[in-house]
């Protein structure tokens, strides 16, 4: 920083009048300066040069002589020590005066490289000068006006008097100024520095942060970082991985046209674009779940696949002979193979036909079948539909057809009870065509086999047909891999612990295998086949009963043989927690109330409906009207229609197919009602077809009016009657349960019969109108319209609440 050195200061330091300095400057520069004018370096040089030359000595001897004379004056007793100087060219007085200014002239010279050295601060004794300056350049006479520009500054240090205080003061000033500009100066002026920093404590922190960012940026440039980015990542997490601030990332995102906050989730593509902006190398983070680690879910190669036995389920109307048929098939097999062995029921069994095998699920009826399907297990390949030849197609037969169709399994019709005199297989086949099941002999693709479970006739034909259909389906599996399958049924045995019947669907299950079945885990301790025989391994389509699981699994659970028991236990723990959460959140079933939302989210492509009515005509009418409601977004699909009360089976089908149930002049039976409530199946009951069509149409447009439900508030018993003119009858009541509110609606119940419904017109305690009266208190109640209240009447207070599911 430049130090201002003004004319008057220079004059003062040179000990000459201001005018002399001004004149000197004017002489060499031609400019007239004022006494306050600050001089630049060149001007100062000129002035000092001029004054130095003006006061120069002819030789040193003269100077020393003069000095000695002086000393002689001061110390006359030592005259012999003095050195006689030669006569100076100029008078000695101006020369002496020039000494001081010459030294002073050094001060501003600090800004030039030839400035004074610090040691000059120390007083210079007059005597040693001759030693320290033996080669002093010869003084230049200033006899003419032409002044020579000096090559370097000549410093005259001959002074006997140096103003050290002034020097120190200037040095101090310089030092403090340096502190301001360069904080590496640590030692000097501590108090000054600390006060300076005290005033700006935040600056230092900001600097650190800025430095850190600079360093990271440098590091990033020097060595690009590699970031792992998963499918989705929050902005904050991405910033952390990029070693950047969230603000930086948000800024880059804005640049990409994405406006996100620190907690927002961005996808892999966006995140990688941002990462690239930060010069980072992007790698996709692959999240390996425990399932992926321990369960081999790879596709089988065709070369590894071998044919497997078909898995068959028997369905049909009650008493049409399902159990008899299953028994007939089983015994035909037992007698053929296991010489009269007594077989135990394990839920499934295999029969042999030559070198071929067929696996039957020994759980007649579609209940178990649909339950499994509802749990996501696709177990069966073929459904045998049992229809009694003398009875024909009955409601449950129709249900079974719909269930089988919904599960996309092949249907083989077994026309049973052919031994009966009233057997009419032709009629059965005719009926089947009504349900799109055209018999093969009529050119369709539904095999119809006449059998008699009682007489055990046609069983072989049925089995052969099953194998034929299976062959057409080309059912294959790979026995050389870890087993995978489905739990058919399970129970807890007091002695043996949890026992599960499992159907191996792919791979081979061995004793000792670690198993995960739904939310249970364990090792296969013992394994028996359907005949109760101990086995060590079971291949595809083989049903087995195993022990060794830590808990009872549920029918329909999928099981896997896994590679690591510790991870298997961890997986089961995760599943248990997930299940808890799922139960808590409850699966979003389609209802008319959430239909529009689901349609909007694109979750709904088909609205499945089950129609139940009192007469077949209504079912058809409704089916046609509903299917006409299909639009571009949603296809309305009536998957089942039937006559009669809404049954447990309807609810089951609705659960499995995510359908809603529509009933006309019918009611759900108690079990169905309970199940529908439990499973969240929407059951809508109507008396008029138009209402149904209208409501479903509104639901599809998202304009369904909210539903109302009654919320009971409390009950009051009428103990006195007061007839008041102009007001009417007031019931003196005692609140027995809950509370009565002024805005409530009231139902008057006399001897268990609802007399009327009305609104409260007045509610009083003593003479005051009140908003509500709590249990145990007396009050007076006046009703809006009903005036015929009697002693002993019960007033039920309730309110209607609008709600959406
Ligand atoms: N005449 C004759 N009767 C049969 C035949 N098959 C079954 N039945 C009889 O029909 C009745 C019902 O047979 P089930 O096998 O119990 O019928 P289901 O379909 O299993 O019946 P549910 O288990 O109640 O659904 C029994 O009395 C059988 O004896 C058959 O082929 N001919």
TrEMBL record:
Location (main, coarse): cytoplasm
Biased composition (Polar residues): 119-145, 178-198
Region (Disordered): 70-159, 178-210
GO cellular component, one term: cytosol
Residues binding GTP, per UniProt: 316-323, 362-366, 416-419
Localization (cell): Cytoplasm
Compositionally biased residues, Basic and acidic residues: 70-80
Record-annotated Tr-type G domain positions: 307-476
UniProt KW keywords: Cytoplasm, GTP-binding, Initiation factor, Nucleotide-binding, Protein biosynthesis
Annotated SUPFAM superfamilies: Initiation factor IF2/eIF5b, domain 3 (SSF52156), P-loop containing nucleoside triphosphate hydrolases (SSF52540), Translation proteins (SSF50447)
Location of region: G-domain: 310-458
Gene Ontology molecular function: any one: translation initiation factor activity
Family according to the record: Belongs to the TRAFAC class translation factor GTPase superfamily. Classic translation factor GTPase family. IF-2 subfamily.
Known function: One of the essential components for the initiation of protein synthesis. Protects formylmethionyl-tRNA from spontaneous hydrolysis and promotes its binding to the 30S ribosomal subunits. Also involved in the hydrolysis of GTP during the formation of the 70S ribosomal complex.
Name of the protein in its database record: Translation initiation factor IF-2
Species of origin: Caproiciproducens galactitolivorans
Name of the gene: infB
């Amino acid at each position: 920083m430049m130090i201002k050195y003004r004319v008057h200061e220079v004059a003062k330091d040179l000990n000459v009048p201001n005018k002399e300095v001004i004149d000197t400057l004017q002489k060499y520069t031609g400019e007239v300066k004022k006494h306050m004018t600050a001089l630049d370096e060149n001007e100062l040089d000129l002035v000092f040069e001029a004054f130095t030359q003006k006061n120069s000595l002819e030789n040193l001897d003269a100077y020393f002589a003069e000095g000695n004379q002086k000393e002689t004056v001061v110390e006359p007793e030592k005259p012999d020590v003095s050195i006689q100087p030669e006569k100076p060219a100029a008078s000695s007085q101006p020369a002496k005066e020039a000494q001081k200014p010459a030294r002073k002239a050094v001060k501003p010279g600090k800004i030039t490289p030839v400035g004074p050295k610090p040691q000059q601060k120390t007083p210079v004794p007059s005597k040693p000068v001759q030693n320290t300056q033996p080669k002093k350049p010869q003084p230049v006479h200033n006899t003419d006006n032409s002044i020579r520009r000096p090559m370097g500054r000549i410093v005259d240090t001959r002074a006997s008097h140096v103003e050290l205080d002034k020097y120190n003061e200037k040095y101090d000033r310089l030092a403090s100024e340096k502190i301001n500009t360069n904080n590496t100066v640590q030692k000097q002026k501590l108090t000054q520095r600390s006060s300076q920093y005290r005033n700006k404590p935040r600056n230092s922190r900001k600097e650190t942060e800025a430095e850190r960012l600079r360093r990271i940026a440098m590091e990033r440039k020097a060595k690009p970082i590699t970031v792992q980015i998963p499918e989705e990542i929050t902005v904050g997490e991405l910033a952390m991985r990029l070693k950047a601030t969230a603000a930086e990332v948000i800024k880059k995102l804005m640049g990409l046209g994405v406006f996100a906050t620190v907690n927002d989730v961005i996808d892999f593509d966006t995140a990688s674009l941002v990462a690239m902006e930060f010069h980072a190398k992007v790698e996709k983070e692959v999240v390996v779940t425990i399932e992926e680690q321990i369960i081999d879910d790879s596709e089988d190669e065709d070369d590894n696949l071998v044919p497997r036995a078909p898995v068959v389920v028997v369905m049909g109307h009650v008493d049409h002979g399902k159990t008899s048929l299953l028994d007939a098939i089983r015994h035909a097999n037992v007698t053929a193979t296991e010489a009269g062995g007594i077989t135990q029921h394990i839920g499934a069994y295999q029969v042999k036909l030559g070198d071929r095998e067929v696996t039957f699920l020994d759980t007649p009826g579609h209940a178990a079948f649909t339950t499994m399907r509802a749990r996501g297990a696709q177990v069966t390949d073929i459904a045998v539909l049992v229809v009694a030849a003398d009875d024909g197609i009955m409601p449950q037969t129709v249900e079974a057809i719909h269930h089988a169709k919904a599960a996309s399994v092949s249907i083989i019709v077994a026309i049973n009870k052919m031994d009966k005199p009233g057997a009419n297989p032709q009629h059965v086949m005719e009926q089947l065509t009504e349900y799109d099941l055209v018999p093969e002999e009529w050119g369709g693709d539904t095999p119809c086999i006449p059998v008699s479970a009682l007489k055990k006739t046609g069983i072989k034909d049925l089995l052969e047909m099953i194998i034929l259909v299976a062959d057409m389906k080309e059912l294959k599996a790979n026995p050389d891999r870890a087993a995978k399958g489905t739990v058919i049924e399970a129970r807890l045995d007091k002695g043996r612990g949890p026992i599960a019947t499992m159907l191996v669907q792919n791979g081979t299950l061995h004793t000792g295998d670690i198993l995960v079945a739904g939310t249970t885990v364990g090792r296969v301790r013992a394994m028996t086949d359907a005949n109760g025989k101990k086995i060590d391994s079971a291949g595809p389509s083989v049903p087995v009963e195993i022990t060794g699981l830590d808990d009872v699994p549920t029918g329909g659970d999928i099981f896997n043989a896994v590679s690591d028991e510790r991870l298997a236990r961890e997986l089961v723990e995760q599943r248990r927690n997930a299940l808890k959460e799922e139960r808590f959140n409850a699966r979003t079933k389609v209802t008319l109330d959430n239909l529009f939302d689901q349609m909007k989210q694109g979750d709904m492509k088909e609205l499945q409906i089950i129609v139940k009515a009192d007469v077949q005509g209504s079912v058809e009418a409704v089916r046609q009207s509903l299917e006409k409601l299909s639009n571009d977004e949603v296809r309305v699909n009536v998957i089942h229609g039937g006559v009669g009360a809404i049954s447990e089976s309807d609810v089951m089908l609705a659960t499995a197919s995510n359908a809603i149930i529509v009933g006309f002049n019918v009611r759900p039976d108690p079990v169905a009602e309970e199940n529908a409530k439990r499973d969240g199946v929407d059951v809508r009951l109507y008396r008029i077809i138009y209402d149904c069509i209208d409501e479903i149409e509104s639901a599809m447009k998202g304009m369904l009016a909210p539903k109302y439900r009654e919320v009971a508030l409390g009950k009051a018993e009428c103990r006195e009657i007061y007839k008041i003119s102009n007001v009417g009858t007031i019931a003196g009541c005692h609140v027995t349960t809950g509370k009565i509110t002024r805005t409530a609606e009231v139902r008057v119940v006399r001897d268990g019969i609802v007399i009327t419904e009305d609104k409260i017109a007045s509610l009083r305690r003593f003479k005051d109108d009140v908003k509500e009266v709590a249990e145990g208190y007396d009050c007076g109640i006046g009703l809006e319209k009903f005036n015929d209240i009697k002693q002993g009447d019960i007033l039920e207070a309730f309110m209607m609440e609008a709600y959406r599911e």
